[in-house]
Amino acid sequence: MITDAEILQETIRLVEDWVSVTLPVNGQSMLPFIIGGKESVILQKPILPKVGNVVLAWVDGSRYVVHRIIRIDGDDVTLMGDGNVAGTEHCTRSDIKAVATHVVGADGRIYYLNSRWRKLTAKLWYRLLPIRRYLLAIYRRL
Question: Which pTM value belongs to this model?
Fold first, then answer.
C-alpha cells in the first residue's frame, strides 16, 4: 500500500520535472473554494508565487498543506486556509513545492483558480475574516 507521504513525494518530483499533477484534497481548510474529499487541484511548478496563490507547501517544518499565500516578506511566506477562521502557517519560498492552477470539481468540471472572478472573491473572502466563522457555518448547513 502506498502512503500519503509517498504520494506527496512523487507529486513533488513530477512537478519539479514540469509535469502537471492532479491531487485530491482532503479536509475542509479550503472551504468554500475547494471542497475536500470531493475536489482535486491541478498542481504545477511554482515559478514566482504571489500573494493570493494556492500552493502546496511544507509548513512549520512538519507537514504539507494546500493553502493560500496571504503574505510574503522577503523569503518568509505566510499561508492560511480559506476555511480557517484563525491560525496561519509559515514557510520559506523554497518550501513551496507547487502552485495550484485549477480545481477539478466533483462533477469533473475544471475551474481556473487565477481567473479575475476567483481572485476577487478570494480577496473579499479574506477581508471577511472577522465574520468568516458565521459564513462557514451557514455554508456547511447548505
Answer: 0.94
